[in-house]
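Hi team,

Filling in the usual template for the complex we talked about on Friday. All components are listed, including any nucleic acid strands or ligand strings, so the model treats them as one assembly.

SUBMITTER: L.P.
PURPOSE: interface mapping
COMPONENTS: two
RESIDUES: 866
SEQUENCES:
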Amino acid sequence: MSEPQQAVLLLLAHPSQHRSEVNLPLFELAKTVPGVTTVDLYGEYPEFDIDIEREQQRLLAHDVVIFQFPLYWYSTPAILKEWQDLVLEYGFAYGTDGNALKGKRFFCAITAGGKEEAYQAEGYNHFTLRQLLAPLEQTASLTGMRYLPPFALFGARTAVEDGLMAQHLEEWRELLTALVAGKLNRRLAAKLERLNGHLDQIITG
Amino acid sequence: MTNYFLQAFIYLVAAVIAVPLARRFGLGSVLGYLIAGVVIGPVIGLVGEETSVIQHFAEFGVVMMLFVVGLELEPKILWAMRNRLMGLGGLQLTLTTAAVAAIALYFEVRWSIAFTIGLIFALSSTAIVLQTFNEKGLNRTDGGRNAFSVLLFQDIAVIPMLAFIPLLALPELVEQAQQAATQVATKHEEISLVAGLPPWAYAIVIVAAIAILVVGGHYLSRPLFRFVASSGVREIFTATALMLVIGIAALMSLVGLSPALGTFLAGVVLANSEFRHELESNIDPFKGLLLGLFFITVGAGIDFGILWQDLGLILGLTLGIIVLKALVLLLITPVFKIGKSDRWLFALSLAQAGEFGFVLLSFTVQNHVLPSELAQKLSLVVALSMMLTPGLFILFERFIEPRYRSAKADREADTIDEHGSVIIAGVGRFGQVINRLLSANGIKTVVLDHQISQVDMLRRINVKSYFGDATRPDLLHTAGIEEASLLVVAMDNRDSAVELVKYVKHTYPKVKVLARAFDRGHAYLLRDAGADFIQKETLLSALELGADAMKCLGFHPFHVEQQKNTFKRIEKRSSDMLYGAWKDDSSGERFDNNYRKLFIELEETIKAAMARDRNDKYAMSDRGWTPPPKGYDELLDGDEPLTVKRVEEPLPSPGDEQLKP
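RESULT (copied from the run log):
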C-alpha cells in the first residue's frame, strides 16, 4: 500500500432507528471496518445539545467526512442541520482563519424513499439527487473540502423486500475500505451522479 | 435434651463441612448433603436409629418446596402447561411402570409385586431435580420445563397410587401381620378424619378440604396478611407463613391426601397475591434447611450391611433402573418435540427414583404388598439412584451440553424479557413514574414496597406490586435479583437506600443500580455505595419550573431551553468535581456532624465552577449558535465557484409520471 491510511469519520443522523431497515445495517457494517469512526448523532445528543468543541476535535482528527442520513424533504434530518450550524463555525470551518477542514474529502451516504426515476428533471421530484444536495456541495466548497457525489440507495422503503440490500452492503464495505486505504480516485468520482454502481471504475489499485 | 443438641450439632457440622466442599468441586449442594449423610451415618456411625424419625420431619422440606414451587406458578401458567403435564407425565409414568413390571415378570416375580415395583420406580425425585435446576439455572430451559411438568404429574399421581396399592395386598403377608398384630395389641393409630368413612363421604370430605384450601387461600389470605403486615413485626409474618404451610399440611394429612400436593395447590392459589415474594422469602430458609436434612437422612439411611450382602444385585438394579428410565424418557421426547440438548437434560434429570419411592415402600410394607426384605433392598436402590443423580447432571454439563453449545449460539434467545426484568424498590411518588414509563414500553418490572397502603393503591389501578422490605436479601433473591438487569432504588428511607445499593453492588456486581437521591449529600453517599446512575429527585422538576418562570418573564422559550441545558450540564460536571472534593475532604470522618460546613464549601465550589465556566477558553463548549462577524464575507474570494459538471450516465428510461402519494 503506497498511500497512507485515511481516517474516516461517519456521522449518522437517523431519528427513528428502531424502524430503520437500511441505514442501521449500513451503520453496523461501517462499525466493523477498521479506520472508520462511527458517530450516532441522535444517540449522542438526544437533546440536541451538541458539544461543539468535541465535534470540531473529531473533524480535525479525520481525513474523510461522511454524512449518513435518510433524505428528509430534500435535505438532512434536523440534527445534522443543527450540527452544521453549530460546528462549522466561523473561524473554524470558514472565515479568515477558518481552514480546519481544508483538503478533507466529504460526501453523503443517503437513502431516498422515491425511485431513481423520480429524481430526474422529468420525474416528480424534478431535480436529481446531486442537484438537491447543492447546499452541502457548496458547504464543502466554502470550507475547502473536496466534494464527492453521494452514495445513494433509492426506493429505500422497499429495498429489503426488493432484495437490494446484499449488494448495497457489499458496495458500502468496498467503498469504506477503499477510502481508508486511500484508493478512491477523486477526480473520476467527482463527476459522477452517485458513487455506487461505478465502484470498479473509481477504485484504483 | 443433651442428646438432641448433640444430634442436631452433628447434622449441622456435617452439612456445614460437606456442602461448601461439594459446591467448590462443582458437585452441587444435594450431593454434598448426601455425602454428609453417608459419612455421619453408615461410615462413622454417629447417627443411626433416629434417622427414620428425623426423616419424617425432614420430609416436611419436600412439602415446603412444593409450596414455593406453587408460589412461582400462577394458575395461568399451570393451565397453559396442562397438555405437557398430562401427556408427558402420563406417558412417562405408564411406560416406565410397564417396562419395569415387564422385566420383573420376566424374572418370575409375582405380578402384584412386579406392578408395585414398577409404580415405585416410575417416580423421580422432585427434591433433587428442582433443587439442582435452581442451582444451575436450568429452570427456564425447555428440558427443565418439561422435566418439571413430569415431576408435577408424578407428585399428583402418588395420591391414586396410595389409594390403589392396598388392593394388591398379599394374603400370606396379611396373615403374618395379623399374627403379629395380635401379639402387639397396643398399636399407635394416626389421627384421621376419614378413617371408617364410606367412600361417598370420603369423597365429599376431600372435595371440601380442597375447596377450603382454594377459597380460603383466595379470599381470606389477603385480609390475614394485611392484618399481620400492619403490625409491622417481621417475625409474625414469618410465623404466619409457617402457620399457613403447616396448617395446610395438617389438613391434608387429616383427610388422607398428600401434604405436598396440598401445599402446592395453596402455593398456586397464592401465586397472584401481592404477598407472594414476602411469603416465599419467609419460607425459603426453612425449606432449604429441611430439604438438606432430608438429603442427609437419605445418605444416613443407607444400610451398608444389606448393601455389601447383595452388592452386585443392588448396583446392577440401580444402574439398570437409571438406564431404563432414561431410555423411556428419551423415547417420549420426540412426541412432544423436545430437541437438542434439552432432550438429554430431560432424560438424565429424571432417571433416578425419588423420595416418594421411600414413602410408597414403607406404605407397601405396611399394607402387606411387598415383603420387608425386598423393600429394604429396593429402598437402597432408590437411595443409590438418587445419589448418582448429581453425577448425571455433571455428565450432562461436561459432555452432552458442550456438543450442542455451538448450535445453540446460532439461535436467538427467545426469553429475553425474562432476563431483562427490572426490579423497582419503592414505588412512592418517584418509583411509580419510573414504573409507568417502563411498563408502558413493555418492560417487565417487579415492584416492591414495604408500605401496604401503597401496594394496595397500585393494585387498585392494576399495577402488579408486592409487599415486602427490599433491603432483605432473601426478598431480593425471590424477586429475581440474580436474573434482573436493573435495580431501581427509590425507597423513602435514605439510609436503607444506601445500604441496599451497597449490598446489591457488592453481591450482584452485574446488576446495574439506578438510585434516586434526596439531595446532594445523599447522591454522594449513593455514589460511594456504587450506584451506576443517580438522579436527584427535585433537580430536574425544579429546573422545569424555573424554566417556566423565565418564560413567564418574557424570555424566549428556545433561549430558556438552552439556558436550562447549560445549567444541567454545569451541574453535572461540577457534581463530579464536587464529589471528588467531598470524598477527599471527608475521608475518615464523613459521618461526622459537619454537614453545614461541608455544604458551604460545596456552594463555594459550585460558584467557582460556574465562574470558571463562563470565562475560560475551554468552557466555550457551553456556547450556542454564534453568527459570523459583520462584513466577513467581503474577504472571501470567488476562486472556487461551485461547479457541478456531470458525466451523462445511461439511465433506465425515466418512468416519470409515476407520482406516488
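MY TAKE: The longest helix of chain A spans residues 165-181. The longest strand of chain A covers residues 64-70.

Thanks, L.
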